[in-house]
Amino acid sequence: MKRSLLFSLVLLAFIGLACQQEKSVSDSVSEKSENSAEEIVAIVIHGGAGVMSRDRMSEEKQKEYIAKLDEAISKGHSILRDGGTAMEAVQRTINILEDSPLFNAGKGAVFNHEGYNELDASIMDGQTLNAGAVAGITNVKNPINLAYEVMANSDHVLLSGSGAQEFAKTRNIEMVDTSYFATPSRLEALKRAQNKTALLNWEDKKFGTVGCVALDKDGNIVAGTSTGGMTNKRWNRIGDSPIIGAGTYANNATCGVSSTGWGEYFIRLAVAHDISAQMLYKNTSLQEAAEDVILKKLPEIGGDGGIVALDKDGNISMVFNTPGMFRASIDKNGEKTIKIFK
Amino acid sequence: MKRSLLFSLVLLAFIGLACQQEKSVSDSVSEKSENSAEEIVAIVIHGGAGVMSRDRMSEEKQKEYIAKLDEAISKGHSILRDGGTAMEAVQRTINILEDSPLFNAGKGAVFNHEGYNELDASIMDGQTLNAGAVAGITNVKNPINLAYEVMANSDHVLLSGSGAQEFAKTRNIEMVDTSYFATPSRLEALKRAQNKTALLNWEDKKFGTVGCVALDKDGNIVAGTSTGGMTNKRWNRIGDSPIIGAGTYANNATCGVSSTGWGEYFIRLAVAHDISAQMLYKNTSLQEAAEDVILKKLPEIGGDGGIVALDKDGNISMVFNTPGMFRASIDKNGEKTIKIFK
């Protein structure tokens, strides 16, 4: 009896000690995380998800994409590393992708049913939850910059069509002729989409939206998305890219997210906000939340696409349910990743 | 020692019995709830939230509002009680509010900066998560019906401006001249808003958006919202009403929500989706979730307004952080509530 009592006492003491140790470990982790939160930077981008496979994309084309993704992610990371804001990094990074005809945003945007390019973009500041967005604009060179102007210099979140362009004229925003956006390959894609007997190629089956999420040295998360929408879209259709909560969301308490995919499904699931909400209310990790939404909920209702995201500790997620997604990241350790296929 | 052992045994037996009883009570409750889930119907509407007080609104005006809210809620409830769908009930109920010049939706919508009426609406089906919305339309008599057509008969969720109207022409939708929406009192409101020295009256300080959420006998939840937006809005501003996740959300697993208020803040918080997400991920009640978002999060970032909502069991919430909100409900017991002030 005495021996079992002694054993119990030893066991209790051991458990007590273990608990104490666990606590001090978790204390030191949280201290470390607080310290490093002031230092770390991280950035992630996408150039659209879709049906792409190694054997259908020439090596040369792959190299072109990888070089442009590299240029964009490196630019954004250097801004962050030099102490620039996530707000600045996201815009400059997206500008590089918008200016490249490789992606469906800015120059190289897809054509709508009527034969011109209608652009959407949004940006959100995770510190203040401020946000700005534009939909259906046709002559602003870099739609993400106009989305920023809506956030910073209007009372509104979302401006559309000719009104958004009237607003652009009141700001220092580069305007271009609508012909600037038109590229021969996108025009061919429109013709294929409008000719029901034409064979679609892999480029017709990707969503070339671009997006960026960045974490700066102050711990601020910013997310942004820019797109030309869907080839052959009609009736001034607005997809998820300019919709805060669907295409873009950022909250310093959780994460920042930028989506790419079949926008209608992303709107119905409020994809970007849902990932943030799962982290906030279920205490799941960013990766778990992103996988739940993109790999489970989205296919359940028939949608496809992907997201890039990062959380307040600089953890990065790039999750998609399509064969490929143009993507790149530089993580909190400075490690660079650039990929196209699964 | 023996007495204390006996006491402990009696206590344990008592606890066991209590648990047993509690279980059987909860069983019978859950049975009742399962049965009644096939039977119950419930409906809730709002006609906008804002700065309104008893002494600034004539009794006659109050009676007018109450009569119209009564007409709308009774119509919707009778559809549900007769076995109609929530989809039908929400549209017909909102049509009554859209057709009344008392509310800022359809006839009686507020004027934009340029002096005409731009209307937004959205509707969502909680069973399928299908959704439809329109933004910035100017000659469709009942915008909520066009939102339904977008959901039911297009590949898209959100159509805007002239494109949305082109789509309307392909459907059996009643079109009207833009002058149909114009009312003298809203024109006066625009003049006051544009004349910075004018004294605003209480009607200038309310958000007259209308909305409805209904639960039908099949357990389906549908939410819808229709609005003229903000007086003096510019640049084709789009508020929260046509944004799925902000102004409207419905999910049979949780609840349906329709918002009214300063739309920009509702977009930034993804108000309607956030209420649904809290129920899903934190297992909170509808009322708790709605109070957290409307009474805590919204004022924290400077926003005001309210929501009406109901959950899958027919529980109704009407939560607002303004002095008043035009609202009415008929709950699962058939009890009617119609109120304007706090």
Your description of this structure?
2 copies of one chain form a homodimer. Chain A has helices at 2-37, 59-81, 86-99, 143-153, 161-169, 184-194, 263-269, 271-282, 286-300, and strands spanning 42-50, 119-125, 131-137, 158-160, 206-207, 210-215, 221-227, 237-238, 248-250, 255-261, 305-311, 316-320, 324-330, 336-341. Chain A has 342 residues and is α+β, with helices and mostly antiparallel strands. Chain A has one domain (40-341): Glutamine Phosphoribosylpyrophosphate, subunit 1, domain 1, CATH 3.60.20. In chain A, strands 1, 2, 3, 4, 5, 6, 7, 13 and 14 form a 9-stranded mixed β-sheet that branches. Chain A has a 4-stranded antiparallel β-sheet with strand order 9-10-11-12. In chain A, a hairpin with a 5-residue loop joins strand 13 (324-330) and strand 14 (336-341). At the A-B interface, strand 3, strand 4, helix 5, strand 8 and helix 7 of A face strand 3, strand 4, helix 5, strand 8 and helix 7 of B.
